[in-house]
Write a structure and sequence with these properties.
By secondary structure, the chain is of the alpha+beta class. The protein has one domain: 3-Layer(aba) Sandwich (Aminopeptidase), CATH 3.40.630.30. The protein has seven helices and nine strands. The protein has helices at residues 25-36, 56-72, 102-105, 123-138, 153-161, 188-192, 204-207, and strands at residues 12-14, 19-21, 78-87, 90-100, 107-114, 143-149, 165-174, 177-187, 200-202. Strands 7-8-6-5-4-3-2-1-9 form a nine-stranded mixed sheet, sandwiched between helices. A hairpin with a 2-residue loop joins strand 7 and strand 8. Helix 1 (25-36) packs antiparallel against helix 2. This is GNAT family N-acetyltransferase. InterPro entries: Acyl_CoA_acyltransferase, GNAT_dom, Ribosomal_N-acetyltransferase. Pfam families: Acetyltransf_3. Residues 18-189 form the N-acetyltransferase domain.
Length: 213
């Protein structure tokens, strides 16, 4: 529950289709169970981090540690907000956003995952659109970025659908093999020019200081 000293759990982003917020401890374990059952299709490697390709137990524990670590290590100069994606009252994945020196740079980087049964339904686009509303309308960001491998077609499609533009490439190592990462960017002005669903923010004023806003 949000408190005067730690109001982040009260931050909520709502659209007609979904809700983004930090999960309760019980919901976090439900999310971990989902991850244990799989977040990437067999034979594919769309994500750079290795946790998604571990055993069911490793995947579940990675989700728990990520959420605990994000809040324990939070500072206005370096923060990661791993919001759970809720539909029909249950978590189906995570839409995260992180920033370094946000008060100065006003730039964020997003990342996400959905449990396998909830992929291919447009939820990734809806969740990213909702978090863009948070960072642009709520936090006053000037830029939002996203990175994906060249063969991660779903992530690339989401970015293009929402108006992101190419922002260069970088050479990476993906699990011991060379890979090319596409960088994408959307500015506040580009976001303002796009059509988007009605989105409601609650609880932001209470925790604005935590974001370096």
């Amino acid at each position: 529950m949000p408190t005067e000293h730690w109001p982040l759990p009260g931050l909520t982003v709502r659209t007609e289709r979904l809700e983004l917020r930090l999960p309760t401890e019980a919901e976090l374990h439900e999310l971990a169970d989902l991850a244990a059952h799989g977040v990437v299709a067999p034979g594919t490697r769309p994500l750079g981090s290795t946790w998604a390709y571990g055993t069911p137990t490793e995947r579940a524990r990675a989700v728990l540690r990520t959420h605990w670590r994000a809040q324990a290590g939070w500072s206005p100069e370096d923060w990661t907000l791993p919001l759970a994606v809720f539909t029909d009252g249950h978590p189906v994945g995570v839409q995260a956003v992180r920033a370094t020196d946000f008060a100065l740079r006003r730039e964020v980087l997003s990342g996400s995952w959905l449990a396998l049964p909830h992929q291919g339904r447009g939820l990734g686009t809806a969740a990213r659109a909702a978090v863009l509303h948070l960072v642009f309308a709520g936090l006053g960001a000037t830029d939002a970025t996203s990175h994906c491998y060249t063969d991660n077609a779903p992530s690339l499609a989401v970015s293009r659908r929402l108006g992101y533009q190419p922002d260069g490439i970088q050479r990476d190592s993906r699990h011991g093999e060379p890979a090319t990462t596409l960088r994408l960017r959307i500015t506040r002005e580009q976001w303002d020019a796009t059509e988007r669903p009605e989105t409601r923010l609650t609880g932001l004023d209470a925790c604005a200081e935590l974001f370096g806003r």
